[in-house]
Amino acid sequence: MAHILSSRILLHPTNLERSRAFYRDALGLEIYREFGIGNDRGTVFFLGGGYLEVSGTSPAPPAPGLQLWLQVSDLAATHREFADRGVDVLREPRCEPWGLLEMWIGDPDGVRICVVEVPADHPLRYRP
Fold first, then answer.
1. pTM of the full predicted structure?
2. Which of 4, 9, 57, 78 has the highest local Cβ count within 10 Å?
3. How confident is the model at residue 2 (pLDDT cuts 50, 70, 90)?
4. Do residues 55 and 8 lie in contact, with contact meaning Cβ atoms separated by under 8 Å?
5. Alpha carbon of 99 to those of 13, 67, 77, 125: distances in Å?
6. pLDDT per residue over 8-66, tens digit each?
7. How far apart are CA 16 and CA 102, in angstroms?
8. How far from 91 is each of 47, 56, 102, 114, 115, CA to CA, in Å?
9. At CA 39, angle to CA 49 and CA 90, rounded to 5?
């Protein structure tokens, strides 16, 4: 059996600089490392328990089924911050029937990103 030590999502956008700026500036993700030089520079962002690498380019947007799930501590505050930064909010925050507070945003290539707050009393916060 493979012993996985680390993981990352590889995202090859249609416009590298635009997507790098989105994840760095609009979402405020912290940079883990950068590699390469000039316009071909790749950036690896911290993504909670993993990483998001934005590098290279693709002639078409990523697969339509690709989605990211980002957990935050305060969805209302995150919504205000994203709105102030011009992030494309696809669906406003709301409480879902399964008890999570969720909002959906989109990256420059249309990758859908679910931004989630797990309430303190939600079963994801504890084990019975």
1. 0.89
2. 78
3. confident
4. no
5. 33, 20, 19, 12
6. 999 999 999 999 999 999 999 999 999 998 878 999 999 988 999 999 999 999 988 89
7. 27
8. 22, 29, 9, 9, 10
9. 50
For residue 31, the SS3 value is strand
Closest CA to 13 of 64, 75, 63, 58: 58
pLDDT at 49: 87
Nearest Cα to 54, choosing from 104, 103, 111, 102? 111
Residues in CB range of 64: below 8 A, 6 or more apart:
110
**What is the Rg, in whole angstroms, of the alpha carbon atoms belonging to the chain?**
16
**If 0-12 CB within 10 Å is exposed, 13-18 middle and 19+ buried, where does residue 9 land?**
middle
Enter the tokens of residue 23. Answer: 């994840």
